[in-house]
């Protein structure tokens, strides 16, 4: 019986060479589909981040106090006063019974008033440290950013709200709401975009304080939360529509990766500026 015969060195080398050639051919055919998959996944991830960011901004902008939106000159800072809810107050002209306190625009010592109807509840409830704004037209004497028509809540008892001050009594002229409406403001939201060729950021900043008219150039703007990175371009616009109580806010956002993948999204938000 003859002994078992193995492979020669030449045969092994031939097999290695042929395997290498076949592997190279397979790699050539697979490279493009695999790269396309990786690029598509990266593009989809960036699109999701940008879309979720703009959706959140849209939701919050629709809660902005009328006539409180500000945009910086370089279009990279967007700021507004955020509302939680609203309601109607008892007016002195309604001749309410003695058990109900109106929101008195005179004298300044009157700090409490009753709501017309039931008080909002749950996440919409009025709480101490919130702010009550009335008829915000964005100019003196009814401009919340100069505290002409906004006061901090110190206590809430059922439908009765107590304020720290009564700025409404010192307005000249008095700027009462035609419909006895008020808004509950929780604080100031500031979106700050810092684009960079290597990937910048978009952050949301919040404080329960009211930032004044010069607040765009005076950081910090409160607690910051990252909304998006990889930001290479962005821009905010604010336009008041003529002869209407409405405005448009435009937001553009571009995200890019080092491999050249880039996406750009643009969104416009219609705001009701009826005070």
UniProtKB/TrEMBL annotation:
<feature type="transmembrane region" description="Helical">
    <location>
        <begin position="7"/>
        <end position="30"/>
    </location>
</feature>
<dbReference type="InterPro" id="IPR012902">
    <property type="entry name" value="N_methyl_site"/>
</dbReference>
<keyword id="KW-0472">Membrane</keyword>
<dbReference type="Pfam" id="PF07963">
    <property type="entry name" value="N_methyl"/>
</dbReference>
<keyword id="KW-0812">Transmembrane</keyword>
<keyword id="KW-1133">Transmembrane helix</keyword>
<protein>
    <submittedName>
        <fullName>Prepilin-type N-terminal cleavage/methylation domain-containing protein</fullName>
    </submittedName>
</protein>
